[in-house]
Amino acid sequence: MTANSLAKKTIRHLRLTPRAHGLTPLETPPYLVLFVNSTCSLACEHCSEHAQLNQPDDLRTSELVKLSEELGRLESLHITGGEPLLRDDLAGICTQFIRHNALRRLSISTSGYHVARTSRAVERILSQSELEQCVVELSIDGMADFHNRFRGDPRSFDNAIQAYYGLAAIARRDARLRLRVVSTATRDNLEDVERLSGYLYERCPQLERHSVNLLQGERRRSNLRAPELGRFVALDQRIQSLWADRARGSHKRVIEPLLSWAKARGLATREQVVPCKAGVLSATVYANGDV
To answer: First and final CA of the chain: distance in angstroms?
Structure first.
């Protein structure tokens, strides 16, 4: 991490600390999660949004523009869905938030299934010079056989890897683009996720991180279960160790173990380890406009 980027990060956290402690008037939460659509062509077994997918009441472009106009400054916007890359106007929506809400940090979650759309949209988003960082997080849950079965489509794994290669070519030209992979851990795929991590580390040099999330909430396959907590924590630690040399900046070596500890502690005790700041520091807007 450069001295300049470290200074910006420090200033940002100093500015937000009084808000987190309730010392300033309430205003627009600086971190927004936006479900830009409910449309998805896959049938992922672990999907927590399956009952809300492919609905007719997704917000129109004009409504998303209105949302942007009614919000103040945003530090970070996370785009999800559905499959957000299925929105033809995704780049335009992101541009609206970049310009009107002084957005500097954007992240997008995607299955990577729609390879050409992914690269085109990211190229257009990066054409906005005001954006400081764009993170694309590909969701892959194991090696090809498992992932394709888990996602309900025989092309899922290959398409996700091809999406990575397309994005990697962009990242080599534009350092603002960061690439990550996230996997959802279940009782069925712990070994597969570990094999996937080694595969990605060896073959995908532009990836900066592979994260593992524990299966939680509703899911499409009702008998799908989360792994035993101790096995999940051990896997998470092994994967973090494998990817430690890819971390950009020494602060990551401090923050990631703390986040992992908080995650494991919360799951073990069923207590809120980190105070909830929903509505103060963060907010979520769903595809139909629910907040």
So the answer is: 35
Residue 248 is given by DSSP the state S
Percentage of the chain exceeding pLDDT 70: 87
CA 90/CA 60 separation, integer angstroms: 12
Give the separation between CA 262 and CA 272, rounded to whole angstroms. 9
Two tokens, residue 274: 């980190």
Say how far apart CA 46 and CA 79 lie, in whole Å. 19
Phi/psi of residue 216, each to 5°? -145, 165
Residue range 118-142: mean pLDDT, rounded: 96
Strand partners, 107: 78, 135
Cα dihedral sign, 230-141-240-5 = negative
> Over the stretch 154-180, which tens digit does the pLDDT of each residue have?
999 999 999 999 999 999 999 999 999
Q: How far apart are CA 168 and CA 180, in angstroms?
A: 11
The string of pLDDT tens digits covering residues 190-206 is 999 999 999 999 999 99
Rounded Cα distance between 85 and 222, Å, is 27
Q: Which residue has the tokens 């909430």?
A: 217
Single pTM value for the model:
0.87
Q: How many CB atoms lie within 10 A of CB 112?
A: 25
Q: Which two tokens stand for residue 265?
A: 């502690």
- Partners of 209 in beta bridges: 180
Residue 171's nearest CA partner among 133, 201, 222, 202 is: 133
Q: What is the spatial distance between Cα 5 and Cα 291, in angstroms, rounded to a whole number?
A: 32
Please state, in angstroms and as integers, the Cα–Cα distance from residue 209 to each residue in 145, 179, 248, following that order: 22, 7, 10
What pLDDT score does 280 carry?
86
